[in-house]
Design a protein that fits this description.
Layout: H1 3-16, H2 22-25, H3 34-48, H4 59-80, H5 82-93, H6 109-114, H7 119-134, H8 137-150, H9 155-177
Helix pairs in contact: 1-4, 3-4, 7-8, 8-9
Length: 178
């Protein structure tokens, strides 16, 4: 794509940014799996990452690229977090193109992790949390099991594992009904 075509494309995306859903912006279907979301985001990031245009002489174009990239990143984060994605999808049905939070989300992962004394159990718990955030429920479940093997009946680990199992059941119901 020549520089003029690229500039026209950025102008078009920037002008319509508030009309794009996260799915449209990342060129995805609403049922996209985490791997598809990740791939779409990385493909788009290769073409519009602000670092690629740091030395571009057109300051306004750089600002527009940065704004587009921020919205892509916002969409990626929302779509990769199952609970936020459900909230977003519900809002999208009502015509809201963005997930707007009234207050900053405070992660409970670190506080939960601090309650685990066994170092290896804590490590497996951390790996499970990371896998869960990525949407990799299979590895999350395995790592929660390993953590529980090392710290049997630990309430924080058991609660996280139960939460994951509920999430899996919801996904299975959605698959069965869809």
């Amino acid at each position: 794509m020549d520089p003029e075509q690229f500039k026209a494309r950025i102008e078009q995306i920037y002008g319509d940014l508030d009309r794009y859903s996260y799915y449209e912006l990342l060129n995805l279907t609403p049922g996209a799996a985490p791997d598809q979301i990740r791939g779409a985001f990385h493909r788009m990031a290769l073409s519009v990452h602000p670092d690629r245009f740091q030395s571009h002489e057109d300051l306004e174009l750089r600002k527009k690229i940065y704004t587009i990239y921020k919205r892509m990143t916002e969409g990626y984060r929302v779509l990769m977090e199952p609970a936020e994605r459900r909230s977003y999808d519900a809002g999208l049905e009502q015509g809201r193109m963005r997930l707007v939070r009234t207050q900053r989300k405070v992660s409970t992962f670190k506080r939960e992790e601090d309650a685990i004394d066994h170092p290896k159990a804590k490590q497996f718990f951390r790996m499970a949390q990371d896998a869960e955030r990525r949407g990799d429920l299979k590895n999350a479940k395995i790592n929660y099991k390993f953590a529980l093997d090392l710290a049997p009946d630990h309430p924080v680990i058991m609660e996280a594992k139960e939460r994951l199992e509920q999430q899996e059941q919801e996904q299975d119901r959605e698959k069965d009904s869809g």
